[in-house]
Design goal:
With about 290 residues, the protein is α/β, with parallel strands linked by helices. Helix content is about 50%, strand content about 15%. It contains 13 helices and nine strands.
Length: about 290
């Protein structure tokens, strides 16, 4: 429960930051509003529960100075196609360049960090974990800094953004065009060419076969696979692990290690207790 504070004077309210509060949970949004306004340094003049509402509010109310933006914004009408808080900020900045935004999130999904990196946001922002900034008063300095043109990223989030960037730099999926990526995804699910063609609305399953060839070339499977079935199985592994994999002459799968070399992706099968220990170690390494 919030402690009682004296009401802000008219002079204080006139100096307070004019804030757009974007949060899809009503109860959290209300608690944030009360906590932020209790500091006397922020005045929430607009609220939004979705990216669409946030964009509309920022465009309609030019007096808004800064936004506190949740990253994951569910929209019942749009479902999975709904924009995130990062997407909303990018859209707002098309009309209002360098519009100040403080992103806060509990999400740890790679897609959010990937979207943030691709957005190219350079200044007038902060990006923090909710768990590290639980109190509304902790957000006030970040909002001031965003308005002043400074930038800040929570070290934990920065580490995750770097991790995703490094992974994407060697991602086999990044070598495929969108249609090829979709075919690879369905191939990894065990669908036949005919089933993939039906799923994608293609008239001829040979189009899938040709796409498979492009995938094998991109992932260098044409050089190592002995036949279509082997190439298909290996392509499925590469897609699922999303890391480069090579096969030696004995058919062992090799993946890059941190020292720039190649190491077996799977341990050799063994029997008895030693085999169980090796299996556990191999599973740990793959993770």
């Amino acid at each position: 429960m919030l402690s009682q504070r004296p009401s802000a004077s008219p002079a204080q309210r006139s100096l307070a930051m004019r804030l757009l509060l974007v949060e899809d949970h009503k109860s959290v949004r209300q608690a944030l509003r009360e906590g932020l306004e209790a500091t006397g340094e922020a005045r929430v003049i607009a609220e939004a529960a979705t990216a669409r509402e946030a964009i509309a509010a920022a465009e309609a109310q030019s007096e808004i100075e800064v936004a506190l933006m949740d990253v994951e914004l569910r929209d019942p009408e749009l479902g999975a196609s709904a924009a995130s808080g990062v997407g909303a900020a990018v859209a707002i900045r098309r009309e209002r360049p360098r519009f100040p935004v403080v992103f806060y999130s509990i999400q740890d999904d790679d897609s959010y960090f990937r979207e943030f990196r691709a957005a190219g946001i350079l200044s007038h922002y902060a990006y923090v974990r909710k768990s590290n900034y639980l109190l509304p008063s902790m957000l006030i300095p970040l909002l001031h800094d965003a308005i002043a043109g400074r930038s800040f990223i929570d070290p934990e989030i920065e580490d995750r953004v770097d991790e995703v960037r490094e992974r994407d730099a060697v991602s086999p999926r990044a070598l495929l065009e969108p249609n090829e990526l979709r075919v690879a995804e369905l191939l990894a699910q065990g669908l036949t060419n005919e089933q993939i063609a039906a799923r994608l609305g293609l008239r001829d399953a040979r189009a899938v076969s040709r796409t498979n060839g492009r995938i094998y070339d991109a992932w260098r499977l044409s050089e190592s696979a002995t036949d279509e079935k082997v190439a298909r199985a290996r392509a499925a592994l590469i897609y699922l692990y999303d890391r480069p994999i090579l096969w030696d002459e004995e058919g062992r799968a090799l993946a890059p290690d941190r020292k720039g070399g190649w190491t077996p992706l799977f341990d050799e099968p063994a029997s008895g207790a030693a085999g169980d220990a090796n299996k556990a170690g191999g599973e740990e390494r793959i993770r």
